[in-house]
Design a protein that fits this description.
alpha+beta, globular
Length: 233
């Protein structure tokens, strides 16, 4: 991601232009947590487009929805590549009840860069995971013929751009929320919710709010989760 921003500053990384690494020494995930990055997996960063051409339809909604939009777009792209992936709110990928990838968006000025990590060849062993981790790690299997990190990344970016363009042009934010709900992992099921520290509780996933937050049913009452992690109960 740092390299992508450096290329943007040099004006040589256009929208949908990307950088891919064989491995990383300082990979990072949410909350700046270390992300192990051995060779064989996908470590890519992508410059996201601006949205001025669709302000009439999406307005200011895109700023809040962009993490969910990115998660949805690449979830669909992975499905097209033969992987039945579900979206763990807001933008992690679940395959066979294990987390196989994740996304991170960073913004500097008016430039957004999307970092993507997908386990293809290896993943941390269960014993290596943090005790408070939301989901154990796994590896993704696709039927795509180019099942190498570079081949998967190129296919993912090309498909993602087409899916994104069609989505923004054809659907309103409220319509998108319905589409994203259909991709959610564990919708309708009970989950364990961690909002920080050791505090956790059980709730049922009902869907998404218009702002892209997770709507839960807890003790017979509806509540909205703005940040936190979830794990199937």
């Amino acid at each position: 991601m740092d390299e992508a921003f450096a290329l943007v500053e040099k004006d040589i990384l256009p929208e949908w232009g990307s950088v891919i690494a064989v491995s990383q020494d300082c990979g990072r995930g949410q909350l700046r947590r270390a992300w192990k990055s051995p060779p064989g997996n996908v470590y890519g960063s992508l410059r996201l487009p601006n949205h001025s051409s669709r302000l009439d339809l999406w307005g200011d909604c895109m700023d809040g929805l962009i993490p969910l939009v990115a998660g949805y777009v690449f979830c669909v792209a992975l499905e097209q590549m033969g992987a039945q992936v579900r979206l763990k709110w807001p933008n992690d990928f679940v395959f066979r009840e294990r987390k196989v990838g994740g996304m991170l968006i960073e913004e500097r000025g008016d430039v957004r860069v999307l970092g993507v990590g997908i386990n293809l060849a290896s993943c941390p062993d269960d014993s290596e995971m943090r005790k408070d981790t939301a989901l154990k790690a796994g590896c993704l299997c696709t039927s795509d013929r180019s099942n190498t990190p570079l081949g998967v990344w190129k296919s993912l970016v090309n498909r993602g751009e087409n899916i994104y363009t069609a989505l923004i042009d054809a659907f309103s934010p409220s319509e998108f929320i319905s589409l994203a709900e259909d991709r959610l992992a564990w919708i309708g099921r009970k989950v364990i919710v961690h909002e920080g520290g050791d505090y956790s509780y059980q709730a049922r996933i009902k869907g998404l709010s218009p702002e892209g937050r997770l709507v839960l049913e807890r003790n017979g009452k509806e509540c909205v989760l703005s940040s936190g992690s979830i794990l199937p109960a």
